[in-house]
């Protein structure tokens, strides 16, 4: 079932969203300071390509001082608009019965888009 969900996800906007994450990550990697944030954006892009059948997991050292600082910077600079976009997409998709599974995937991606350092989609 997750294969079918992921295929439909890609056809109806997931590919464009994942590509946006990847391109944004590559742009961030152009500077030395942006490399950690670019790598997280690329990680998010790969997660957005196939979210069905996966869960957000917290890594053992997710709350280390450096990751907390990076997560705070991420939220202020990039995270909140991404989370709002996922929330808006989920709200629109939840208006129809067919869109509810896709809305659930957008809701699942919100914590990962807010706190990408120390979390992964597996």
How does the helix and strand content classify structurally? mainly alpha
Distance between the termini: 16 Å
- Number of DSSP-assigned strands: 2
Range of strand content: under 5%
The count of domains is: 1
Please state how the strands of the largest beta sheet are arranged side by side. Answer: 1-2
Q: Largest sheet, if any?
A: 2 strands, antiparallel
The global form is globular
Count of helical regions: 4
Helix content: over 70%
| Low-confidence sequence ranges | none
Elements, N to C (H/E): HHEHHE
Average residue-wise pLDDT: 94
Radius of gyration using CA atoms only: 14 Å
InterPro entries: Inner_membrane_protein, UCP028777, YccF
Transmembrane segments: 7-35, 72-104
GO cellular component, one term: plasma membrane
Domain Inner membrane component: 4-54, 69-119
Q: Mind explaining what this structure looks like?
A:
With 122 residues, the protein is mostly helical. The protein has one domain. Helix content is 70%, strand content 5%. The chain has helices spanning 2-28, 35-49, 65-93, 100-114, and strands at 56-58, 119-121. The protein has a two-stranded antiparallel ribbon with strand order 1-2. Helix 1 (2-28) packs antiparallel against helix 2 (35-49). This is Inner membrane protein YccF. It is found in: Cell inner membrane. Keywords: Cell inner membrane, Cell membrane, Membrane, Transmembrane, Transmembrane helix.
Short structural description:
70% of the residues lie in helices and 5% in strands. It has 122 residues and is mainly alpha-helical. Helix 1 (2-28) runs antiparallel to helix 2 (35-49) and helix 3 runs antiparallel to helix 4 (100-114).
